[in-house]
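Deliverable D5.2: sample structural annotation.
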Amino acid sequence: SSGINAEWPLRPGDIADYATGLSRMLNGKVIPSERPGHMMLENWHPLGVIGVITAFNFPVAPYFWNFTIASICGNACLWKGAPSTPLTGVACTRLIADVLEANNLPGGLRGLVTGGADVGSAMVDDPRVNLLSFTGSCHIGKQVGSKVQERMGKLILELGGNNAISVMEDADLSMLVPAVCFASVGTAGQRCTT
């Protein structure tokens, strides 16, 4: 091993296993009512379409985190990666479609759009995108958040990150140096999952 983590802290399979475990916990509650002979039932319903917009420096993991959880909740996903990562999106979407189709599910439950800010803006503004997850800068995240809130949409924002690192006197330099180099070069100095 070079000391640089060539594998993600959570690989797609790990994320899928986690989501599968969560799927067994989506139970509703039976809540007593003040009215005799009555009760309230808590039911979970899919939102519909989940839009996921990911950044250039870490395009795949945030999408997997979002689509696996969205899947167990019965939602469809539409992914837009950064304009510099279209082949990553195509490859991942094709792999996911193959897995879905092998399990008798439509591959189209996971869609992909590519393009620039105009495509992202269309997703942000579209009321058919019931929840939008955006990973990117604080500057753009503020704009995305305002627009989605204007249409009363649901929103997940993962913003900023200049990857500050605090080093203690007793730090293991053989671990520290490769980790700092990977964090600063591997994700353009913007890492939220170091």
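Annotation notes: Helices lie at 12-23, 61-72, 86-102, 117-125, 138-150, 173-186. Confidence is low (pLDDT under 50) at residues 1-8.
The annotation will be released with the project's public dataset once the embargo ends.
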